[in-house]
Amino acid sequence: MSWEIRTDRPIYLQLIEQMELKICSGVYALGSKLPPVRDLAQEASVNPNTMQKALAKLEEDGLLYTNRTIGRFVTEDVNIVNQVKNKLAKEQVQDFLKKMRKLGFDNNEVLSMLETMLEGVEQ
Amino acid sequence: MSWEIRTDRPIYLQLIEQMELKICSGVYALGSKLPPVRDLAQEASVNPNTMQKALAKLEEDGLLYTNRTIGRFVTEDVNIVNQVKNKLAKEQVQDFLKKMRKLGFDNNEVLSMLETMLEGVEQ
Amino acid sequence: MSWEIRTDRPIYLQLIEQMELKICSGVYALGSKLPPVRDLAQEASVNPNTMQKALAKLEEDGLLYTNRTIGRFVTEDVNIVNQVKNKLAKEQVQDFLKKMRKLGFDNNEVLSMLETMLEGVEQ
Amino acid sequence: MSWEIRTDRPIYLQLIEQMELKICSGVYALGSKLPPVRDLAQEASVNPNTMQKALAKLEEDGLLYTNRTIGRFVTEDVNIVNQVKNKLAKEQVQDFLKKMRKLGFDNNEVLSMLETMLEGVEQ
DNA sequence: GTGGTCTAGACCACC
DNA sequence: GTGGTCTAGACCACA
User: Fold this and answer.
1) How far apart, in whole angstroms, are the C-alpha atoms of residue A114 and residue A117?
2) Share of chain C above pLDDT 90, in %
3) Which of B59, C29, C119, D58 lies deepest, with the highest CB count within 10 Å?
4) What is the DSSP string of D5-30?
């Protein structure tokens, strides 16, 4: 998964979301060292200051921590990561339901459709 | 809902998808007249030919029909629209499941989470 | 039926053929008066001299005759017209067979296909 | 057989028809590689985009398939080609009958004329 | 070098 | 003014 930046919302918010996702999905493992800010910024084609702002917010939330002389690391606290995971999951569910409602499906229909599509599918 | 065009996929495909969505979600009602190609193109900030290509494809699929010199109309055939609705819904479900799996949720967890979030929510 | 002129063959030959066809199919009835050469030429978008050349040839074949002061007329001789009709028909058959052979159909297949398509069709 | 383009009908439709004919009559054998779009366009004296449009339609119908960056190929599926062959043959028969009727021949006369002309003719 | 896509701009038929 | 078609010219991804 790469970086996807759009111009219709604050970039640093998008960076936060995608960074959260990368951590929760294991792209950056618990306790692992992150690439330098400059590298991340270049990878995402954004200004280093913007990337810095995003990382600072993630640090605030406890998802990252900085060792000034060595670099930035992903937290080793599973609980924090799980909290974020749940937050992201809830957002996905909300987003999904919103889209399905727009298509005219009510709760029961969404549920039965999901159940149908889960049957017989390997995990 | 407005138009969102990205540069990483053929524009006409995105136009097709968004047009399908607009029709299925009722932005363009069954049997109603569409704005002229040129207007739609300007609205979406694309070349009229590109919009034309997308509309031609939708016409092939029976979602639209053209009354030459008068304009383009949404089909009045509920069946066709429902078919497209189901197709779009399935895509949404697949997409949703893919994202949830990336977050580390298995089928049962997705299902129970959805059920939980549907409880006590007004339709 | 209007005039169709192509640039890949002598125009006057095409005029002859189409004039024969018009007479045989009754566009210009037996014994009827033809429009003036200039009108015919304009109708077919060709030079009057070219039209003149075609009409002269048809006259030679007895399909037309000229009354100098009154104009040009279609012959009243059914036999002559029937001869031309047969000639044109044979050309059509030959042309048809040639095309069918190019598509890979042999005589028997052509015959059976024709018989099939004639069944149940009102004349 | 070369390309014949007329101005009284959409060019891309004529290209489709003639391409179908070329494939059905073996000018382009099953499974063989077609010349590049640009070459075909130049051969037919049309814009590459117009040729592209025609080929795209033939591809939709399964008569061609594209191996991107390598080229376009005729299908290897005999069934599809035979279907098209039959379609073209039916059109020829219809066209033939129409012309013969215009000349004043009824079904039986057409049939007997064809039978007569087929006798004693080498295949 | 291949097919695919997009834009810009033009003309046509029809009502 | 509507959709339809065509041309010219450009750029892209891929191998």
Assistant:
1) 5
2) 74
3) D58
4) --SSS-HHHHHHHHHHHHHHTTSS-T
Burial of D38 (0-12, 13-18, 19+ CB in 10 A): exposed
Output the six-digit token pair for A120: 């017989």
pLDDT in tens, D110-123: 999 999 998 866 55
Chain C CB within 8 Å of residue D103 CB:
yes
**Cα B81 to chain center, whole Å?**
11
Backbone angles phi, psi at B82, to 5 degrees: -65, -40
Regarding beta strands B64-67 and A71-74, do their DSSP bridges make them parallel or antiparallel, or are they unpaired? unpaired
Q: In which element (H, E) is residue C82 found?
A: helix C78-102
Residue A3 has which token pair? Answer: 């970086």
- Residue stretches of chain A with pLDDT short of 70: 1, 120-123
Inter-residue contact A10 to A54 (CB < 8 Å):
no
| CA distances for B47 relative to B2, B41, D20, D23, angstroms | 17, 6, 31, 34
- Would an 8 Å CB–CB cutoff place D94 in contact with chain C? yes
Residues 78-117 of B with CB under 7 A from strand F: none
Predicted TM-score of the model (pTM): 0.84
Is-contact B94 B110, C-beta < 8 A? no
- How many CA within 13 A on the CB side of residue C102? 16
Each residue's pLDDT tens digit, C30-46 = 999 999 999 999 888 88
Average pLDDT of span B42-69: 94
Q: C82 falls in which pLDDT band (50, 70, 90)?
A: very high
Which among B21, B90, B123 has the least Cβ separation from residue A117? B90
- Given a contact cutoff of 8 angstroms between Cβ atoms, the answer to whether A22 and A28 are in contact is yes
pLDDT at C79: 92
Q: Do B121 and A107 touch (CB under 8 A)?
A: yes
Confidence class for position C9, pLDDT limits 50, 70, 90: confident
Measure, in angstroms, how far nucleotide E15 C1' is from residue B66 CA.
Answer: 15
Distance separating alpha carbons of residues A123 and B104, to the nearest angstrom: 11
For Cα atoms C28, C34, C38, give the angle at the middle one, nearest 5 degrees.
Answer: 130
